[in-house]
Amino acid sequence: QKEVEQDPGPLSVPEGAIVSLNCTYSNSAFQYFMWYRQYSRKGPELLMYTYSSGNKEDGRFTAQVDKSSKYISLFIRDSQPSDSATYLCAMTLGAGGTSYGKLTFGQGTILTVHP
Amino acid sequence: NAGVMQNPRHLVRRRGQEARLRCSPMKGHSHVYWYRQLPEEGLKFMVYLQKENIIDESGMPKERFSAEFPKEGPSILRIQQVVRGDSAAYFCASSPLRIGELFFGEGSRLTVL
Hints:
The complex is a heterodimer of chains A (115) and B (113).
Chain A: E1 4-6, E2 11-14, E3 19-25, E4 32-38, E5 45-51, E6 54-58, E7 61-66, E8 71-76, E9 85-92, E10 104-105, E11 109-114
Parallel strand pairs in A: 2-11
Antiparallel strand pairs in A: 1-3, 3-8, 4-5, 4-9, 6-7, 7-8, 9-10, 9-11
Chain B: E1 5-7, E2 10-13, E3 19-24, E4 31-37, E5 43-50, E6 53-56, E7 65-68, E8 75-79, E9 88-95, E10 103-104, E11 108-112
Parallel strand pairs in B: 2-11
Antiparallel strand pairs in B: 1-3, 3-8, 4-5, 4-9, 5-6, 7-8, 9-10, 9-11
């Protein structure tokens, strides 16, 4: 079993739809949770990061973390064609030692938003 | 401020040759990470370096792979005697702090014939 599970999709939605992306994980020691967006042939860029459980909102994006269920989500409201990309969840053990930048990624979900 | 620069962007090697991938972190960043992205898989951590030091190489294959981040110049990921299974995208990320956002480069895509 992978430490982080993410449905690879692909997911295709019409412009303006609400998109829900999810990851589950098995290691309860993960403390920091991130979502990255990766356009084709490009490097990942950080979209959102949250610490521990709770919600975080940034414009059209909302990240949710439920540590009790080991489940994280990213919601995209009013999706746009420019949101078409691969979305990667990532998590890390914490700030102690050398572990913060050692991210464990999900496989990524390919999202297409069509006009 | 230029982003993380990786070169070459594309590299083709025959089995048994050596591959050298270079990464220049963002200005002021002294923490460098290498990740590998295999087809149909997510990014996998390989190694974490600070200037002149390997901090965590727990994700590096035990043989043929090495990394360095010298006092002057870019970080280098070196793969000796490449095999077809080494074909992947290799991403470098840098951070200004031990605890801070990772900024990724655009990757170096290695193809082994």
